[in-house]
Amino acid sequence: MLAILKASTLLLLLPASAAMAEAPQATRHVEPNTLVPKGVIRYAPTGFPDRIVAVPMQDASTGFSVSWRTDAAVDAPVVEIAVAKESPDQWDGDVAPRRVTAVTRTLATANGVANHHHAVVDGLQAGTLYAWRVQGDRTWSPWRQLRTAAPAGKPLEFLYIGDTQNKNASLVTRVMYEAVRHASNSNLVLFAGDLVSEAIDDDEWGEWFDATGPLATMAFAPAPGNHEFFEEHEDTPQERRVLGEQWKHHFALPGNGAAGVEPTTYWFDYQGIRFAVIDGTSALDLDAAYTQAEWLDKVLEGNPNRWSMVLIHQPFYSPRGKARNDRHQVLRDELMPVLQRHSVDLVLQGHDHVYGRRPSDGGGPPVYTVSVAGPKQYLVADEARETMSPVGEDTQLFQVLRLEGNRLSYEARTVTGRLYDAFSLVDDGAAGKRIEETREGRIDERTCARAQTLGGRADRCWE
Hints:
seven-stranded mixed β-sheet, Immunoglobulin-like, Purple Acid Phosphatase, chain A, domain 2, alpha+beta
């Protein structure tokens, strides 16, 4: 024992560098996809509300939809909402906060039976900060605050987040905290799909909601990715993709989507921008490209706004190379002509787990961007480097967009906050919109320095 104490004392007295050299080096392993140990129930539903999320209504200046989860003992609870006040008292004199009763559906998962509640909160005032909370079993959630969209013409800031998908609690959480630091005025966040890796893994969904907790003051607008689907009858002639029930239970979307893909497509107007969300998985794998093209044509044709954006998971132009580009040909055949005909400004995408930006073939809008927020990192194909700039590997990112007057600015930042890409679309009226590059402050393109991942894969940079 005395010898052990002497050795420990000597180690403490060594300089820091020497002490570190004396310490044994840890062996690196592939991190599990969730922080939940096998056999542990971490995300069982209870009487306390969780997984609380707001989604913009079709006219985001007049309201939003709210979803949340409890155990099965809670049936048809309510949302309480009032114009936010400086006082802790959310009553208006003798008038109580407005109450909206939710519609409840039950979902059984590996974490137990849960009730998921959806409520539409409409009739609100534009550009107004509201305080709201949701009901559980003899309890309430904490009060939250959310500002409705202001009228068109007011300055707007919002976030765009690429794939989160893997290790959400462990490695995506820091992206969300950094995003809030750089976009503190944001009331809206767009997610480009693949929120989780396994569509029906309830632990993954629990960690996704934990990771996105820093964005709780924003309305969420998610696009579905291929990982929000699962393979039914896998490896048989009847194999097909099926949308996971968690997606339908977690998000109360506007309900104005394309025929046959209503749960995964929608559009909404937000402060001078029309956003349309497309289901790329159904377009590629379930023969829904033409139907969505017809729907998108009508959505954009009726756009009274100065700006328009499309959010889709799978890229029209893949940074991953020819094989994936060939697979995505149907997107370019059916949907791209609609984007070009209606002069869509930005197409925000994910799926490829790298960064890439490409203008349209004419050199202007639409501008196509691909980004990734999660830790799964792929490699950029050589041919993509000839058509996209900048590109990036081995980098977790988030994007901040700002609209003010005739200028829509875009910046991609790394998880440490450094500027990776930046440009603006400037509307010159009759002359149309042009791209204006911002190069000052941008770091150099990042490439993967690893020959293989910890798991031994040479086709990607990180697991």
